User: Fold EamA family transporter from Lederbergia citrisecunda.
Amino acid sequence: MKTWQYALIVFLGGCSYGVLSTVVKLAYGAGFSVTEVIGGQYFFGVLLIWLIFLFTKKQKMKYKQLGKLLLSGLPFGLTGVFYYQALQSLNASLAIIFLFQFVWIGTFIDWALFKKKPDFNKIISIIILILGSVLAAGIVVEKGINVTWQGSVWGILSAITFTVSIFLSGSVEKQLPPVQRSTLIATGAFITASAIFPPVFLADIHVAMGVAPYGLFLGLFGVALPPLLFSIGMPHVGPSLGTILSASELPVAVTMASIILAEHVGLSQWFGVVLILGGIIFGNVQSSKPSANPLSINKLAK
Assistant:
C-alpha cells in the first residue's frame, strides 16, 4: 500500500470514534444506563473483532507477545472510562476539549521518546486544530460553563490514555497480522472496561436484547474498527502525525449530531469543523524548507 493510504486508514479510525457520541445519546434517550451502554459497547465489540479474527490469517505467538498486546488494550479501555467520568462533572463540549488535547500530546511523545522534533507546519497544524476544536465544540457560544478540577483531571487523563493507545497501535508487535494484533488489544480493552463497568446486564435477557442494537454499533465503531485501523496505519505514519489525523473525530461528531440528533450547530461550530479539517491537511503539507519529517506530502504521494 502507498503511504497516503495508510494515512487515510488512520483518518478513518478517528472518524469511527466520531460517531460514538451520537449513538450514546440515543441509547441514553432509550433509557439505558452508563454501565449498560459501556458494557454493551465492549462486549459486542470484542465479539465482532473475534468473529473477524476467526476467518483471517493467524501467526503463532509467545506468551510474552500475548501479554504485551493484552496490556496494550489497557489505555484503550481506560480512555472510555476516563472520558465518561469527565462527563459526570463537565458538560460535553468542555469534556471533548480536554480529550482533544491528544493532538499535541502525541507530537510531544514523538519528540521526547524518538527525538523527532516537530517542524513548523506541524506546530501550526496543532494550533489550528486546538482553535478549531474550541469553536466546533461550541465553547465560544455556550454560557455558564462550569469547570471542576475533578472533571479536568479525568479529561486530561482521557487525552493521555488515548495518545498512549495511538502510540501502542503503531509500536507493539508490529510483525503480527493487524487483525490478530487488534483482536488482542480490543480484548485487553474489554477486560479493562469490564473490571470497572461489569456487563451485568447480560443476566437480564430483556435488557441485553434492548441494548444489543446500540452495543453492536458502538462495538463496531468504538472497539473493533479503531484498533484494527490504527494497527494497519499507525506503524507507517507514526504517533505524531497519527494524532493529527485522528482529529477527524470531532468534525464527524458535530456532523452526526446535526444530522441524526437534529442538534443546532451554529456558524462558528461549522467554521471550527472546517478549521480542523484544514489543520489535518496542513499537517501533511511539506514546508518549503527541507524537513526530516518522514511523512511529507511528497512521500505521501509515492
